[in-house]
Design goal:
There is one protein chain. With about 290 residues, this protein is of the alpha/beta class. The protein is built from nine helices and twelve strands. The chain has three domains: about 80 residues, Arc Repressor Mutant, subunit A (Orthogonal Bundle), CATH 1.10.10.10; about 100 residues, Periplasmic binding protein-like II (D-Maltodextrin-Binding Protein, domain 2, 3-Layer(aba) Sandwich); about 90 residues, 3-Layer(aba) Sandwich (D-Maltodextrin-Binding Protein, domain 2), CATH 3.40.190.10. Helices cover about 40% and strands about 25% of the residues. The strands form three sheets. The chain has a five-stranded mixed beta sheet with strand order 4-3-5-12-6. Helix 7 links the parallel strand 8 and strand 9. The protein is elongated, with a radius of gyration of 23 Å. The relative contact order is 0.14. Belongs to the LysR transcriptional regulatory family. GO terms for molecular function: DNA binding; DNA-binding transcription factor activity. Pfam families: HTH_1 (PF00126), LysR_substrate (PF03466). Keywords: DNA-binding, Transcription, Transcription regulation.
């Protein structure tokens, strides 16, 4: 009788993370039929299905949910042991989320530090709007993420404070009275909530003229002179200026940029990446 080996577990993890047999097959560089066969073998060994099939792909059954943390631990232990014996640093796969506005400045330094020490590791980087990162951590779709919060919790590491403020165009100032045109992020996130709270607390009439998924869209609307918006005041383009004296715009408390590791992903590999991230943010990048 075939034993439960690491190849089956690796394919199980790949399908789980990808949400489909096709995506999992691409991750482990095998054909879809080969991974389907492995999933069938795994389910036969366990005597229960680990995936439930639906129109969009697959999801975990109760048995799959129980297997998931064990499979991650087994694969991480095997990769770590192989790397330690082989002297090539840690191995395995790590999924990290980093905000798109942080990626250009920090990402080369972070992955460079990490890869030099752990060349056998595989990194999967999600550089996007960080509003989705907390849910992805809880769902097991990310192992760790850098994102902004209002309050730092015990399971988070503070990287830096982000000074937030209302910003306008240097060349096209918005009128200081009347209804205020604003540009906001288009989804529920701390920055959007802070902006609306600031406006409502000051009882200033406002009108949303543009929403954007990223800071680039907000900055473009401000530079064009059609709106004001809430941005990181420590890294403003030269054509944008803080609106410190405009009536009706209250002060915004700084956002806390944190590193958070998923509860199911506390591994030597994740800890090594956390060290690289913290070192990068504690040093000035030339």
């Amino acid at each position: 009788m075939r034993q439960l080996d690491s190849d089956l577990l690796r394919s199980f993890l790949a399908v789980t993370d990808a949400g489909s047999i096709t995506g999992g097959a691409q991750t482990v560089h095998r054909s879809q039929s080969a991974v389907s066969l492995q999933v069938g073998q795994l389910e036969e060994l366990l005597g229960k299905p680990v995936f439930v099939r639906h129109g969009r792909g697959v999801g975990l059954t109760e048995a799959g949910e129980a297997l998931l943390p064990v499979a991650r631990q087994v694969v991480q232990t095997l990769d770590r042991t192989r790397a330690e014996i082989g002297g090539t640093g840690l191995g395995g796969r790590l999924r990290i989320g980093i905000p798109e506005e942080q990626g250009a400045e920090r990402l080369p330094d972070i992955i460079g530090r990490f890869a030099r020490s752990h060349p056998a590791a595989e990194l999967i980087v999600r550089c996007a709007n960080s509003a989705d990162f907390p849910a992805a951590l809880v769902a097991g779709k990310l192992d760790m993420a850098i994102h902004e919060v209002e309050t730092v919790k015990e399971n988070m590491t503070l990287l830096r404070e982000i000074p937030l403020g209302w910003v306008g165009s240097r060349a096209h100032p918005v009128a200081e009275d009347g209804t205020l045109p604003v540009a906001l992020f288009d989804r529920a996130c701390w920055w959007r909530e802070a902006a609306i709270r600031s406006l409502e607390n000051c009882e200033r009439g406002y009108r949303v003229v543009l929403t954007s998924e990223g800071a680039g869209g907000i900055a473009a609307a401000i530079e064009a002179g059609i709106a004001v918006g809430l941005l990181d005041c420590s890294s403003l383009p030269k054509d944008l200026v803080p609106l410190t004296a405009m009536p009706g715009l209250g002060e915004i408390p700084p956002a806390q940029l944190v590193l958070e590791i998923a509860a199911t992903s506390v591994s030597p590999l994740a800890k090594a990446m956390a060290e690289a991230v913290v070192r990068s943010y504690s040093e000035t990048i030339a």
